[in-house]
Amino acid sequence: MQPLLSIIIPAYNVEKYLKQCLDSVIKQDNGKIEIILVNDGSTDSTWQICCVYAERCPLIHAYTKDNGGLSAARNFGIKKSNGMYVNFLDSDDYLPDGAIENICHRLIEQPEIVIGLYDNLYEITGQVSFCGYHLDKNKVESLTGESLLMYLMSGRIYDWYVWLLTVNKTYLLDHKEYFCEGVLFEDVRWTPNILLHAKKIAYIDAPLYIYRRNRIGSITATFSKNAFLNKLDLFHYIESFSKKQALSNETKKALFVNMSNLYVSTLFETWSFSKAERKQYLQTLKKYKFILSESARTYHHLLNIIWNIFGVTFVSYLLFLRAEWVRKKKIK
C-alpha cells in the first residue's frame, strides 16, 4: 500500500541528535507514513545509528551516499520516496507530538501544499518558544501566485524554511522542483518558487516542527567565506528569479526586504575580509540599501539613518562590533 506521506531526513554527522529526531517520528506512526533516511557521507556514528533504527523499524528506509550537501541529500530522498506527499525533517531537529496526524488530516483534502508553523528550541538554554507569527487561514487558502507571496511577507519576515511545507509529490515532479545543489540557503531559492505555482494550499495554524537554533557547528552558527558568498549570490538570484517569473516590482522588492536580517549579517561579515575585498563587497551591497529603509523593523530604519549620515563602512563596522560583543557574551 502506498504511504500517504514520506518524511525525508538527510543526516550528516548528527550522532548527538539523530535518535531524538527519529524517535519523534516513530512514536507518531499512524500506518500512513514512511521515513526516507539519507546518510550524506557522515564521518561519525550517524550511519550506524541509521542502520540500527532501520533494522528494528519497518517504516524506515535507510540509504547512504557520498557527501554532497543538504540539497543533494534531499533530492536523493525525493527520488527514493514512495508517498503521495513528501516533507522534510532536518536530522538535528524533531517533530512535536501530533504533528503527523495534523498533517495527514489535511492531506485528505488533496491540496498541493500544506503550510504549518514551528517552535524554536534554543540549544544553549533548552528554552522552547513559538515562531512568533500566525497566518490568516482564509487568505492562505484562497490566495495564489504573487498575491500569496505578498501576503506571506506583509508586515513580517516570512521564513522560507523547506520543512514548513508538505508537498504533493506529483506536483513537485511535474514542476521539476528539485533543490539547487552545491549552494547554501537553498530554502530561499526553493520555497518561493514552489508556492508561486500552487493552486490549492492548506494551512495548519499550529507548530508542526521543532527547530533547533544556535547548534554548535551548524552553518548559521559559524562564519565561512563560502557561506558569505552564497548569501551575496542570493541577491543576484532574486533578481533573476523575479525577471524569469515576470514578478511585479512590488513583489520583487518585497522578496529583497524579506531578507533584511540576512542583508544585515552580510554587512558585518565583510569585516572578516581584507580591506580591498571588504570595499568590493560593500560596493555590491550598496545596491540593496533600500532593504533597510523598506524593512518593517525599527532597528533597520535606524541603521539606514546612520548609513545616510556616516556611510556604509561605519554601519558595517558598528554591526561587526555588536556581533563580536554578542559572540563573546555567549562564550561566557
Annotate the secondary structure layout.
Blueprint lengths: L4 E7 L6 H9 L6 E8 L5 H11 L3 E6 L4 H11 L4 E4 L10 H9 L5 E10 L5 E3 L6 H6 L2 H9 L11 E4 H6 L11 H11 L4 E13 L11 H20 L4 H9 L2 H10 L5 H12 L3 H5 L3 H13 L1 H20 L1
Parallel strand pairs: 1-2, 1-4, 2-3, 5-8
Antiparallel strand pairs: 4-7, 5-6, 5-7
Entry keywords:
alpha/beta; 332 residues; single chain
First-to-last CA distance? 54 Å
Largest sheet: 8 strands, mixed
Query: Total number of helical segments?
Result: 15
Low-confidence stretches: none
Task: Tell me what the structure shows.
- This protein has 332 residues and is an alpha/beta fold.
- It has 15 helices and 8 strands.
- Strands 1, 2, 3, 4, 5, 6, 7 and 8 form an 8-stranded mixed sheet that branches.
- Helix 9 runs antiparallel to helix 10.
- The N and C termini lie far apart (54 Å).
Short synopsis of the structure:
This protein has 332 residues and is an alpha/beta fold.
